[in-house]
């Protein structure tokens, strides 16, 4: 099967333009699904072609605000504070963390995505509950 790179590029551009995380296109017997992480054609994953993250935010971006440094969700999904039920939480209010430390997991489509801290700091506030659905770009925690 010949892959039309122009269609994939156009769909990738739509992700950015409309601030989407996933888009699916079907024509006759070809189905192309483009997401921030990969491209799938007829249910087979292929290398991403010029699929950029949105310019307004990068995955798990930190934003300085009056409340402190905000760490946001890189994807839509369900947030979890620990690696498994009953396990020790990744972070707690008042805990000092370093850039790259996992702050929580966001599960999307049965895939557990570790969300890293984008900067060093002390956890000032945890803004989502364990098991709560989160949106792309939603503030998860604030740091001092």
> What's the CATH first level of the largest domain?
Mainly Beta
Might you state the CATH topology name of the largest domain? OB fold (Dihydrolipoamide Acetyltransferase, E2P)
The major β-sheet equals:
5 strands, antiparallel
- The CATH architecture of the largest domain would be Beta Barrel
Q: Output the radius of gyration.
A: 17 Å
Description:
By secondary structure, the chain is mainly β. The protein has two domains: 5-46, no CATH class; 62-143, OB fold (Dihydrolipoamide Acetyltransferase, E2P) (Beta Barrel). It is built from one helix and 13 strands, in the order αβββββββββββββ. The protein has one helix at 5-17; strands spanning 22-27, 30-35, 39-41, 44-46, 62-65, 68-72, 77-80, 96-97, 102-108, 111-116, 121-126, 133-134, 139-143.
Provide tags for this entry.
OB fold (Dihydrolipoamide Acetyltransferase, E2P), 2 domains, 13 strands, 9% helix, elongated
